[in-house]
Amino acid sequence: MMDGMRVALMVTCVNDVLFPRTGRAVVDLLTRLGVEVDFPEAQTCCGQPMVNTGYLDEAVPVVRTFVSAFEGYDAVVTPSGSCAGSARHQHRMVAERSGDAGLVAAVSEIGPRVYELSEFLVDVLGLTDVGAYFPHRVTYHPTCHSLRLLGVGDRPRRLLEAVRGLTLVDLPEAEECCGFGGTFAMKNADVSVAMGADKARHVRETDAEVLVAGDNSCLMHIGGMLSRQRAGVRVMHLAEVLASTEAAA
Amino acid sequence: MSATFVGMPAFPTAARAALADTQLRHNLTHATHTIRDKRARVVAELPEWEELRTAGAATKDRALLTLDEQLVRLEESLTSRGAVVHWARDADEACRIVADVAQAHGVDEVVKVKSMATQEIGLNEALAAEGIAAWETDLAELIVQLGDDLPSHILVPAIHRNRAEIREIFRRRMAASGRPAPDDLTDDPGELANAARLHLREKFLRARVGVSGANFAVAETGTLVVVESEGNGRMCLTLPEVLISVVGIEKVVPTWRDLDVLLRLLPRSSTGERMNPYTSMWHGVTPGDGPQEVHVVLLDNGRSHALADQVGRQALRCIRCSACLNVCPVYERVGGHAYGSVYPGPIGAILNPLLKGVGSDPQVDSLPYASSLCGACYEVCPVKIDIPSVLVDLRAQVVDAHRDRRVPKPEAVSMRAAAWTLSDSRRLARAERISGRAGRWLTRLAGLPGPGRRWTSARDLPAPPRESFRAWWLRTRRRGSRS
After folding, report:
1. I want to staple A62 with a disulfide (CB 3.0 to 4.6 A). Which of A47, B49, B254, B378 is the partner?
2. d(C-alpha A85, C-alpha A77), whole Å
3. Contact criterion met (CB < 8 Å) for A51 and B392
């Protein structure tokens, strides 16, 4: 199925700038699994920060850039449920706003080929055991857009359960939002922090060493609170856990 | 009720005050989780729940898409059964109609069934200004009214109060409007309910005019439906000589059969019950039985405006179950008052801007942003209102309403700058090199300056990397890659 398939990495702007190790983990992981992955250099951002703040006109050129970067690939893999959700569910609205039928057609064509990492591994590659080794006590936060916008279901958990050495503990109130919410974290900072405080408390209740999720922006928020509390819990993207091997450890 | 939502500050300001109220936080967490869990249990009993949701949404859509016809049909059905139908464009007109009917009967008091529409139009205050007391008879609405308080939830308006607070309100306030609370009243729920029962019974037996809303209005048969738990509604609907019902025009459903799906969706979604204890249905006047003069006020008050909104019109499907409030992580922490309206929570965050319009009132404009877009509301909505999508669309309307400002807001300037940077990867790469250096310098500070403080006041920033992903790729991979 993978033969001749052209796979692009959509690293996302947040990962590109702040969490390059996540992008490198996706490249390492996919390479290890025999997938040749390309990084289209024209890529920038999915446009979600503008769309979710109400700046649709500003999102139009960003979505055009997205299209020119990822047109022609068979699959676009991204280590972010939120950005995958943006490409699959919001780009059409932005394109329609532009009044450009060509852009509408292009985003409709690319959208269904955008995969969040766990979807790509489980659905396209047909894998749950990716040969990872990570000897730590881990809890998993299913980020809202992965869970409810994309419907990734238990794919990330199945991937984590197959990791050798890893102990997966349930996170209480796991499906409740952490309070990041993009510009919500700034525009409604007090509510965002109140939500994050409860999420951080639940993480600490698990006694896990590592909090894992599929979105670094949510992890930046929860991790920023855990760090401020000197909680002794670190946050890590799912891709980095899955990229870890015994050889590397 | 002397309290009013008029003049409430924008959501972030109101929310900050609410977050600091520890009693409120405690009461809300307990109450929302209790109802949330109850709902989840009874919904899980029905394997056909998703089909029911789809059918419920379709039923309401069908009514809304033919609203003009349905309303005319409803008026005919009601009139033929002896009811008097009034049309009200806005809150003032609706209040005027109710006051005129009450005054025509020379009364100085009315008893009320719990009703969102009458709260929305500020009926109690309008009647008070005419010297008419409007007594709330729903237990929670009574608590709110006696406490000079504001409702904070659609279904459980006193959700922000606990038993001890309710006991205090009853002891201090009941005497001023009728039978006082017993001297030895404790905070036992049974005792509190009994005190309310005795206090209200006098009012039920005395009042000559009742006021209600309706959960549904059937165009085909002229049936109005009230769904409730306590039986106080049944008292108000049957004991007085005159009944006035204020009904939002979006409450109409075409046929009697349409009630089937909606009455299965509503109790499970709202109180977490398989069936609600009291469902009252009436058609105009029945000689010798119940009120002999029946008025129905069909209320627009912004609903036509909402119906014209292609994305937002789905909000008119709402059957006021409040499931979205109970699962909302924002509502759970701030409660209802911060939304500045009788419609709080996720549905309030879309309904208020849709009814009132955006671009003129900063409080209304702040509501579409009162959400992290987590999507929990959409998941539980019994009529499948895609609240997150409507929120995003309303945010765009808020931004568009301010596009011609001579001095753009700082946010607009930064969004334009971001769009410029992010529409060309070379500009982004250049920005990354600058921000990498700035970031390493900034994290040495205790916190970010300016608006960045909103992040660093409670959260650490991650240490920025020395090399962006893009730079790493170019350095290590480019030669071997296909691009």
Report:
1. A47
2. 12
3. yes
Q: Is A78 on the interface with B (CB under 8 A)?
A: no
A43 near B CB under 8 A? yes
- B331: phi then psi, degrees, rounded to nearest 5: -55, -40
pLDDT at B443: 63
CA distance B280 to B302: 27
Which residues on adjacent β-strands are paired with residue B217? B224, B252
In chain A, ranges of CATH 3.40.50 domains: 137-243
Confirm or reject CATH 3.40.50 for domain A137-243, answering yes or no.
Answer: yes
Q: List chain A residues with CB under 8 Å of B454.
A: 185-186, 189
Nearest to A220 among B19, B330, B462 (CB): B462
> Over the stretch A97-125, which tens digit does the pLDDT of each residue have?
999 999 999 999 999 999 999 999 999 99
A187 Cβ neighbours under 8 A, 6+ residues apart: B12, B369
Q: Is the C-alpha dihedral spanning A238, A240, A242, A246 positive or negative?
A: negative
For residue B449, the tally of other CB atoms under 10 A from its CB is 9
Q: B117: how many CB neighbours lie within 10 A of its CB?
A: 23
A139 closest CA partner among A180, A176, A174: A174
B205: number of Cβ within 10 Å: 10
Structure tokens at B483: 């691009």
Count how many pairs of residues, chain A against chain B, have C-beta atoms within 8 Å: 205
Q: Domains, chain B, ranges and CATH?
A: 11-303 (3.40.50.10420), 410-480 (no CATH)
CA angle, residues B85, B87, B88, in degrees to nearest 5:
140
Instruction: Say what the pTM is.
Output: 0.95
| H helices, E strands: number in chain A | 14, 8
Instruction: Write the pLDDT tens digit of every residue in A144-165.
Output: 999 999 999 999 999 999 999 9
pLDDT in tens, B449-483: 677 888 888 999 888 898 999 999 999 986 554 44
